[in-house]
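Quick check before the chapter quiz. The format below is the same one you will see on the exam, so make sure you can read both the input and the output lines.
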Amino acid sequence: MVNVYTDEDLNQVYKQRKKVLYVFWGVALGYLAICIACLCYHISLPYGADSTVPKIIVGVLSVAFTCFAFSFMSIKFRRVNKYYKMLFELSKVIKNKEENYFVKFENCDVQKDSVDA
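Here is the expected output.
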C-alpha cells in the first residue's frame, strides 16, 4: 500500500495554519493599537480643536484592515484550514482499525417478481 499522506504532512499543515493565524492576529493587534492611539489623541485634544487627522487615519486603516481581513481569511486561511481538517480526518481514518467477525450468509430470495436480482 502506498501512503500518500503521513503524520508529518499533518504536522506541517498545522504549523502553517498557526503561522497564518499569527500573521492575522499580529495585523489585527497592530490595527487595534493604532485605533487606540488615535482615540487617546482625539480625547486629549482641547474642546473645539480640529480632530480630522485621527478620524482620517482610522477611516483609511479601517478600510484597509477590512479588505485585508476579508481577502486573507477567506482565501489563505480558509484553504489551509480545509486542508488541515481533511488531513486530520484522514489521519484518524488511517489509524482506525476494526475487526469484524463473519457470522453467516443469510438465505435471501434471489428472485423478485420472477426476475433474477
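If your answer matched, good. The mean pLDDT is 86.
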